[in-house]
Amino acid sequence: MIISRFWLSLIAIFVIGVLFTQIADNEFYFFISYAILQALIMAIGWNILGGFTGYVNFGSAGFFGIGAYTTVLLHKMMGDVQVVVAVIGAGIVAGLLGLAVGYLTLRLKGVYFAIATLAIAIVLETVAANWDYVGGATGYYILVPEKIIFFDSYIEWLFTVMLFLALLAVGISRYLNSSRMGQGLAAIRDDELAAECAGVPTLRLKLISTTIMGVLMGFAGAAFPFFVTFVEPLSAFNLLIAVNAIAMPMIGGTASWFGPIVGALFLGSAQEIITVTISSELNLLVVGVLLVGFITLAPQGIVGLYQDWRKKRDAK
User: Fold this and answer.
1) Could you state, in order of their start, the residue ranges of all structural domains in the chain?
2) In 25-110, which residue ranges form alpha helices assigned H by DSSP?
3) C-beta of residue 200 within 8 angstroms of C-beta of residue 96
4) Which listed residue, 63, 256, 289, 307, has the most CB atoms within 10 A of its CB?
5) Is the pTM above the cut of 0.90?
6) Confidence at 273, pLDDT banded by 50, 70, 90
C-alpha cells in the first residue's frame, strides 16, 4: 500500500516535533505549543459537526471537561495512570457521550440544538462539581513523574502526545472532507430535507459526526489534568474553551478542513502572545472582537478570503 504525500507530510511533521524535544532546552516553547495544539484539536472537532454538518454546538466545553474528568476518574481508580491510557479512555467515553447526545438532540435544529448542547455542558459541570469522588468543587490534584524515558521533562512528553493527536485530527478531518461521507455531511449542511429525499442517510451521518466530535474533544481534554496538575469544574468546563472552539473555525473558515487549522494557529498564537506580554484576562475580549469582525466582514474566514483573492487574480 502506497502512503499518500499528505500522510507522509504528517509523519514528517511528527518526526520533526520529536526531534525538536531533543534540541530545544526551554520548556516554555512546549507549554505554548501544547496550548496551541490543544486548541487545534478542539477547533477541528467542533468543525466536523458545526462546519461540515451545519449543527452549531455550544457544548464543546462539556466534552472537553468529560475528557479531563475521565482522566481524573482513571487516576482515582488506578492510583496512577499513563497519559496514553487516559487519552484512549477519554476518547471512548466522550465519543459515547457524543453518540448519546446525538440521539437526544439531533432532531432539534438551529438555535434549539445549540441551546440543548449548552444545557448538557452545564449539567455535566454541575455533576462534576457535586461528585466528591473526583474532587467535587474543590478540585483534584494529579502529580506527574519528574522523569520520563527519552524526554528531559514531562511537558515534552505531553507535547509529543498532543502533536500526535493534532496530526491525527487533521488526517481525520481531511478524510471526512474529501470522502463520500463528507459529501453527505455537506448535503445535510446545505439542505437536510433535500438530502433525505436524495437518499442520504442523514441520521446515521449526523451520529457519526457527533461521535467523532466527541472523541476529538475527549482527546483534547484527557491530557489537560497532566498539563495543569490541578483540575476543578470551573477550569475544565470553562466558557473560554467553548468560545475558542467556535471562534477558531469561524475565523479560519468552516467550509474546508484547512480552515480550523488556520484559525487555531492564528488565534491560539495571538492568545498566547497576549497572555505573555499583556494579560490573560484580555483573551476573551480579543476572541469576541475577532469573531464579530470576521462574521461581519469575512463570514467565510481567512481561507475564504484567500480563495476569493485567488479567484479574482485568476480572472484578470
Assistant:
1) 28-238
2) 27-50, 60-78, 83-105
3) no
4) 63
5) yes
6) confident
